[in-house]
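Quick log. Single chain, no ligands specified.
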Amino acid sequence: MLLAVVLVIVLIASSVGAFVLLDQGKTVKTGDLVRVDYIGKLPDGRVFDTSMHSVAVDNDTYPKSLFFTYRGSEAKYSTLNFTVGAGAMIDGFETGVQGMKVGETKTIVIPPEDGYGDEDPTKLVTLNLTETIPFQQTLTVDAFRSVYGTNPVRFNTYTNPTYGWDVYVTFLDSSNVILQNKIPAEGATYRAYASSSDASYGWQIAAEYDQNMTNIIVHHQLDASSAMTVKGYQGNARLYVQSVDEAAGTAVLNKNLEVVGKDLTFIITVVSIG
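-> predicted structure:
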């Protein structure tokens, strides 16, 4: 009986060992169902996404990009499962895992054409660091709804979603709305391009009236250090400060996704094949 048990154990062990050796020799190919762990980085090394909770919570070793989203508890993180060649992943990722073995880790760099594509130039906006905003503005009713997300009501006060100060409806008919920007308090600062639900969006501005009291002069508190480190929100679009030219008094706001138009680095570990 004892000999029989020993033989069974030996057979099981040898079978498992053979399976492990066979699995280690297998490489990823088109049609395989694979499980991988990954870390995705922007060109400056900041992590924009990962499958691993240990990476997500470690901001010292793995500094995060502007739009990195922490999913929460460890249970929210797991390996990425996909079938190679099914089109669920960007081309560069699918190509990169092919030929890898279980347990192997590889770093790949994916250019925009094999990743998330080139930037849409229409989503690049040049902002003057000093702007002149009319004290009184006329919008169509439809434009007001688009900007403020509600129907206008005469004599009501609303918060300007771009500059953060209050506006007052002085006139309203079926077609047009006349708005009066409330006079900013002397020396007051406001937060432009901010989000009411996330304080990390937006940047400080200083606002004052011109000598004729007909325009508001806005000074955006952005400098060279703001590039790629400051984000904002306008309407339904997220944006980030791509560059600042202090000499020219301008900044470029980018409304493309953070991963668009960039060479992306992925560190990939194959967990299983098939």
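Residues 121-254 form one domain.
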